[in-house]
Amino acid sequence: MSNEIVLEQIEVVLRKINWAQEILNSAQETSEDTRIVDILSGISFIINSASNDIEKLYRSIR
C-alpha cells in the first residue's frame, strides 16, 4: 500500500475522531449528571490520546 493511500486513510480516521470529540464536548457541556460528565471526560481523554498517536503516525509517514 502506498504512503499516499495510508495518509488518506489516516486523514479519514482523524476526521472521525474530531467528530467524536465534538459530540463528546457537546454532551459534556449539556449534561447535568456529574457521573455522566466524568465518564465522558474519561472517554474524551482516551480519544485525545488516540488522536495524538494517529497524528504522530501521520507526520512520521509524511
> Can you tell me the overall shape?
elongated
Mean pLDDT: 94
Sketch the major β-sheet: none
Cα-to-Cα separation, first versus last residue: 14 Å
State the order of secondary-structure elements, H for helix, E for strand: HH
**Structural class of the helices, strands and pairings?**
mainly alpha
Computed Rg: 14 Å
Into which percent range does the helicity of residues fall?
A: over 70%
Q: What proportion strand? A: under 5%
As residue ranges, the low-confidence spans are: none
Count up the helices: 2
- DSSP strand count: 0
What does it look like?
The chain has 62 residues and is mostly helical. Helix content is 90%, strand content 0%. The longest helix has 28 residues, at 3-30.
